[in-house]
């Protein structure tokens, strides 16, 4: 009898506790668009900032920019390449999401993703997001020139994730594609640079967004 009880206790412990070395990361949930459909890898979406988000751009006395999206644009005075990710009025430009596993179709929270603008560019860099340090300000900004796939040390700055934020979502940089790397994690949001550009980069507070599917 005692042996039977011990066996049941052992089985219960194994079922309710992870094995040594098993990952215990954040819970992954399907990311939903504004129509409550799961985001699909390779499909086009607009990333739309949520009205009244703490990082919504305001330029007094002009009204705050609520009807906005994200796009690639040159932010230097001479309009040189590479193009940076900025907040613009309107829907912005369409983007696609690619997980680390190319066979995965559903996009989930708290998982590493490549983000790419599905547009043509006159610059030689790709339209894949990449986090870099701005040479003039030292601020970490999202620019172009990343690559799709090849998770590892050489591509660590190309990976972003989506986090659940109340009824909405936010974007976050904290890649887990390199076990030996120690990236400095941070919220992805919008801030004004010295030239008045609404740059996308690392900010202090989460920046709520929604995902608007592009009509076919």
Mind explaining what this structure looks like?
- InterPro entries: Kunitz_inhibitor_STI-like_sf, Prot_inh_Kunz-lg.
- It comes from Stylosanthes scabra.
- This is Miraculin-like.
- Helix content is 7%, strand content 30%.
- It is built from one helix and twelve strands; from the N terminus they run αββββββββββββ.
- Strands 1, 8, 9, 10, 11 and 12 form a six-stranded antiparallel sheet that branches. Strands 2-3 form a two-stranded antiparallel ribbon.
- By secondary structure, the chain is mostly beta strands.
Structure, briefly:
Helix content is 7%, strand content 30%.
Structural class: mainly beta
Give the biggest sheet.
6 strands, antiparallel
**Envelope shape:** globular
Helix count equals 1
Q: Element order, helices and strands?
A: HEEEEEEEEEEEE
Q: Percent of residues in beta strands?
A: 25-35%
What is the residue-averaged pLDDT? 85
Distance between the termini: 66 Å
Radius of gyration: 20 Å
Poorly predicted runs are 6-24
Topology, number of strands = 12
Indicate the percent of residues in helices. under 10%
């Amino acid at each position: 009898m005692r042996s039977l009880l011990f066996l049941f206790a052992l089985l219960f412990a194994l079922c309710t506790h992870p094995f040594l070395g098993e990952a215990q990361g954040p819970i992954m949930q399907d990311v939903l668009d504004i129509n409550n459909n799961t985001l699909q890898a390779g499909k086009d979406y607009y990333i739309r900032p949520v009205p009244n988000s703490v990082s919504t751009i305001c330029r007094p006395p002009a009204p705050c920019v609520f009807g906005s999206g994200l796009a690639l644009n040159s932010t230097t005075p001479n309009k040189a390449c590479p193009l940076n990710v900025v907040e613009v009025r309107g829907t912005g430009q369409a983007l696609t999401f690619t997980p680390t596993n190319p066979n995965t179709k559903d996009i989930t929270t708290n998982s590493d993703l490549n983000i790419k603008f599905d547009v043509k560019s006159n610059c030689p860099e790709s339209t894949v997001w990449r986090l870099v340090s701005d040479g003039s300000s030292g601020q970490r900004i999202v620019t172009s020139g990343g690559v799709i796939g090849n998770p590892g040390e050489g591509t660590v700055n190309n990976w972003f994730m989506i986090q659940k934020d109340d009824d909405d979502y936010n974007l976050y940089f904290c890649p887990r594609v390199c076990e030996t790397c120690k990236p400095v994690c941070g919220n992805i949001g919008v801030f004004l640079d010295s030239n008045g550009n609404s740059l996308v980069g690392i900010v202090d507070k989460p920046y709520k967004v929604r995902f608007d599917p592009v009509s076919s």
